[in-house]
Amino acid sequence: MTTPDVLVIGGGLSGLAVACKASRAGKRVVVLESAPRIGGCFHSHRTPDGHWFEMGAHTAYNSYRGFLELAETAGAASRLRVRGPQRARFGLLRDGRYDWLTPPKILLRLGWLEAALHAPLGILRGKRGRSMRQYFEGLLGPRNYARLFGPFFAAVPSQSADDFPAEGPGSLFKNRPRRKDYPRSFGFDGGLQAVLDGLAALPCVTVETGAEVASLRRDGAGWVATTVDGRRFEAPLATLATPPDVAARLLAAELPVAAAAAARIRTVVVESLGVVLPRERCWLPELAFLVPVDDLFHSMVTRDPFPDPARRAFVFHFKPGIAREMRLARMAEVLRVAPDELGPVVAQRLVLPAPSVDHAALVADFDRALAGAPLAVVGNWFDGLAIEDCVQRAFAEWARIAAAPRPRDARIRAPAPAAASVGMPG
Ligand SMILES: Cc1cc2nc3c(=O)[nH]c(=O)nc-3n(C[C@H](O)[C@H](O)[C@H](O)COP(=O)(O)OP(=O)(O)OC[C@H]3O[C@@H](n4cnc5c(N)ncnc54)[C@H](O)[C@@H]3O)c2cc1C
After folding, report:
1. Which CATH number goes with the domain that contains 313?
2. At residue 414, does pLDDT exceed 50?
3. Of the residues 61, 184, 242, which should be mutated to test ligand 1's pocket, given the most ligand atoms within 8 Å of the CB?
């Protein structure tokens, strides 16, 4: 067995973005992923006959320069698919009534008098130090926020976005330069996960699924990760790419101050259910997503921007803690089918960060505690949840640990005989 150069714990976008950079630098990488599949929040569910739909992330933009670099490296760029006109159609569901909208129609729903009364002071106050609700209520008025913008913002991170910071780390919307050689918004044949599949297959990258890491310890100049089933993996460099609650647990032994900072990042659980229906059983007009007001779910996302002639897919992102039977009943109600017509249901449970206005300070505390450690810590709980936020954090952390001086004997002790082989070539 050969000791890899880099261990990556967590096989979602962030972990695989680090693996990609390390592989391109000629390093041997082992990615340890607890789930039976890679991807985390990237979850393109695929059926044996080639149909697919997104249980998690569904849209990328040409302002995602780092993600496009990953797609190109993964060999996925040729499978890019432009989102169809359905991308700009959506629904608002309030009190059992559906309002079918397009971006211009949303403006017609705005209470213009209320907005005009609030806008001047709202613009003057700006975004600094304010939450989404404080900023947008100040800009457009509380009624406009509660009726229209609050529910739409909640649909983006699958949780209430009221307390999210209006700008800076953890915020939802950021201005980024666009790459004009790509369409404005897009997906991939087989789903966004095609990009991660390509990264996992890069030279020098080995992925171990079903490898839940239980501890991460320093050993000499390097790191040892031990899985719950007792396998040991060792490398001079490590990357932690898990949700913050797991990161806090794994950091506790070696970097307790960083662990305490990670533990202060709040999280929410999103429980999602996805179904495919024959076209003739669907009553909803073609649309990208549905946003409910005061409902059991935050949003329902469709595959309609990539239409299939025979079937449509619907994924409901539910609030946590609702019994499965209740969720199925609500889905059936919205889709206007009997519960037993829903067919096979795909289920997913994810942990997402829930940033608030103190997020920048929490991240700064964490990064101070991490400074100097030969360990990258990446994820959607630093710059923000968006794909590009994760990729930029991953690139920056790889650059930091790759550039850090290491002792000449950085290669750590040979593994004990009982250690699992990671099957690296060479
Ligand atoms: C429903 C949904 C829709 C979204 N839509 C979009 C979108 O359209 N556009 C966009 O820009 N962003 C979107 N996002 C956000 C974006 O997809 C995520 O923020 C991003 O993919 C997170 O990647 P990550 O690798 O940081 O974390 P994760 O995807 O959470 O990956 C962490 C990985 O670590 C693994 N892990 C956890 N514990 C351990 C352990 N002990 N040992 C080993 N492995 C472990 C997990 O299994 C997981 O695979 C969406 C998110 C969700 C949930």
Report:
1. 3.90.660.10
2. no
3. 242
Mutate to test the pocket of ligand 1, among 41, 83, 269 (most ligand atoms within 8 A of CB): 41
Judge if the beta carbon of residue 350 lies within 6 A of ligand 1.
yes
Tell me the per-residue pLDDT of 315-348, one tens digit each, with 9 for 90 and over. Answer: 999 999 999 999 999 999 999 999 999 989 999 9
Please work out whether the CB of residue 219 comes within 6 Å of at least one atom of ligand 1. Answer: no
The atom of ligand 1 lying closest to the CA of 32 is: 43
pLDDT at 107: 87
57 Cβ below 6 A of ligand 1:
yes
Q: Is residue 251 part of a domain?
A: yes
CA 388 to ligand 1: nearest atom: 11
Given a contact cutoff of 8 angstroms between Cβ atoms, the answer to whether 285 and 314 are in contact is no
CA 354/CA 170 separation, integer angstroms = 8
Phi, psi (5° rounding) for residue 326?
-65, -40
> Looking at the chain, how many residues does it have?
426
Q: Which of 323, 353, 383 is the last residue of a domain?
A: 353
Cα–Cα dist 356/258, whole Å: 19
Q: How many domains, in total, are found in the chain?
A: 2
Taking 90 as the threshold, does the pLDDT of residue 208 lie above it? yes
| 159 CB within 6 A, ligand 1 | no
Give the residue-averaged pLDDT of 154-158. Answer: 92
**pLDDT given at position 220:** 87
Ligand 1 lined by 251 (C-beta under 6 Å): no
Considering the chain, what percentage of its residues have pLDDT values greater than 90? 89
- Please say whether the beta carbons of 423 and 14 come within 8 A: no
Res 278: pLDDT = 96
Q: Does residue 396 share a domain with residue 347?
A: no
- pLDDT at residue 38 tops 90: yes
Q: 3-class DSSP state for residue 298? A: strand
Interval between CA 86 and ligand 1 midpoint (Å): 25
Cα angle 315-334-292, degrees, rounded to a multiple of 5: 75
Question: What are 370-386's pLDDT values in tens digits?
Answer: 998 999 999 999 999 99
CA of 142 to the centre of ligand 1 (A): 32
Range of the domain at 214: 6-81+188-265+357-403
